[in-house]
Amino acid sequence: MGFTINDSGRLLRDGRQVELIAARPSHTGGNFARTPKVIVMHFTFGGSGRSSADWFRDPNNQGKSSAHVVIDRDGTVLQCVSFEVIAHHAGRSEWKGTVGMNSHSFGIELANWGNLKRGSNGWVSWTGVQIADPEMAVHKNGNPDGSVTPIGWERYREAQIEAAEGVAKAIIAKYGCDEIIGHDDISRGRKWDPGPAFDMGSFRARVLEDMADDGDNTLRVTVAEGLNLRKGPGTSFDVLELLPAGTALRPVERNGSWILVNVLNNAGVARRTGWVHSAFVD
Ligand SMILES: [Zn+2]
What's the rounded Cα separation, in Å, for the pair 130 and 11? Predict the structure, then answer.
């Protein structure tokens, strides 16, 4: 499974564009003036990923909210805003002295009910949906209701986290982001997502440590006649370009004998991503 982002800011999964449920244009902020260096993680505080994506195009959405992608509990990824365009996912926010993080970050929403309420028979969402086996925890900034004893939080699913990892890696490969933070890090006291059920430490490790292995991890094209860079992991996918012998590549992830790579320019900076067959690099 591999995610990539094309030059229009569209997300591809194994070489195919993921489903687009486009946010209303008035719920977005035009093209980024500067490439964001930060990825912000969220929970939707809602049911299906599709229902949240639909909300981003709903004229009744007074907050005009949106996000670049919504990842459902089963790992399905829906794109709502191009990665070239500002999404309204952060609201009032500040990070390291920069205010208004919509203009400086990408937003990934995870379908999740977030903080739960005590029901007559266990924990329920704010809409009354029963949630079995929640994570019991206190939010690091204090719970939304001001309590400091553990409350229930819906757990995230591995398929969902795996997809989020792939999307975050694709964003980093394309745009060179170097930070992953929570909405609760940039809108403290106002937002509680992705919350304590999201293991930010291990997520960062999964995404960033893999990506940081450049240098000695760099591969080179070894075939004199050049090597096809493809849109997906297989010869059925379109050729993006012919990479000359000696081209430096940074591996992102493997899929069988195929490797998703960043193609590096002479300065060692990633200029595009694609798939190559592992037999022709070393
Ligand atoms: Zn949020």
Answer: 33
Neighbours of 70 (CB within 10 A): 29
Domains and CATH numbers, the chain: 3-114+155-211 (3.40.80.10), 215-280 (2.30.30.40)
Whole-number Å distance, alpha carbon 221 to ligand 1 midpoint, is: 42
Alpha helices by DSSP H, the chain = 49-55, 158-175, 183-186, 200-204, 210-211
How far is ligand 1, taken at its centre, from the CA of residue 15, in Å?
A: 29
Length of the chain as a residue count? 282
Ligand 1 centre to CA of 43 (Å) is: 6
In this structure, what is the dihedral angle of CA atoms 141, 145, 151, 156, given to the nearest 10 degrees? -70
Q: How many angstroms does the Cα of residue 14 sit away from the middle of ligand 1?
A: 28
This prediction's pTM: 0.77
Q: What is the pLDDT of residues 20-54, one digit of tens each?
A: 999 999 999 999 999 999 999 999 999 999 999 99
Torsion angle of the four alpha carbons 221, 227, 233, 237, in this order, in degrees rounded to the nearest 10: 160
Structure tokens at 196: 């304590």
pLDDT of residue 216: 62
User: Rounded CA gap, 25 and 87, in Å?
Assistant: 10
Report the distance separating Cα 79 and Cα 54, nearest Å. 11
